[in-house]
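Dear support,

I submitted the protein below through the web form. The confirmation email said the job was done, but the results page showed an empty box. After a refresh the structure appeared. I'm attaching both so you can tell me whether what I see now is the final result or a partial one.
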Amino acid sequence: MPRKRPASVASERPIAWLAALVLAGGLLAAPGVEAQRVDLVNRTTLRVCADPANLPFSNEQGEGFENKIAEIVAADLKVPLEYTFFPQATGFIRNTLFAKRCDVVLGYAQGDDLVLNTNPYYRSTYALVYRGGTGLDGVESLADPRLRDKRIGLIAGTPPSAGMIRLGLMQHVKPYPLMVDRRYDSPGERMIGDIRSGDIDAGVLWGPIGGYFAARGGEKLVLVPLLKEVGEPRMAYRITFGVRNQEDEWKHQLNDIIARHQGEIDAVLLAFGVPLLDEQSNPITAPRH
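What the results page shows now:
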């Protein structure tokens, strides 16, 4: 999921992160000299902060889509790629980006002032996942009456929770934990397994997680982007790179790289089953150029 404040998304990512703030840094030189912004970026290597076991996003083996996108960025910069791995739970940003052990986080939801956001490199949404042929074919919204008595999986504390409460769906919900160390637990993957086994009828997941696991590890499941939900919180989020506050030059450099390679980035995301949306919430089914 996107990273926002802990109340939204952690193992679900990006939204687990919109929380905490800090750092700034302007230094004044001698009188009459314009203030210089602090820039701690290592220009000889691309230093990326990432989770060591968080597919489909990243892992130590370089198999996630954020790993692949980091390779695109490093190739553009013509520098080696280096990782600082740390579980994406409490303390991730403090122990990586703010500790100056790395210079960029891939996969950060737009709108949090904890970090400085680049332009978004994709926009995605929460999605409903279910087995085809089980009476839910054609469901496009959580308000569909066919879901009223169904057992639905939900990552606790994520944005769809509010809408499901309004719709009276929580009494049948099976909750899965939000804040986990993915080296030891994979709630989204477990939810997908429970849908396949029939333990639950459907699940609601951040689209990149649902899209990846629904197509792997067993029977292919139906994934429906939640584009027709009414009210707050919203289901769709723009995802950016996160850098340290006030490192504007670095942010602009990354923005240029995103723009130059948007088509390649789209191709990576689509290959991983990420449901991509344009700004009008139309599905993107082919790389943009």
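Response: this is the final, complete result; the empty box was a page-load delay. Residues 136 and 146 are 7 Å apart (CA to CA).
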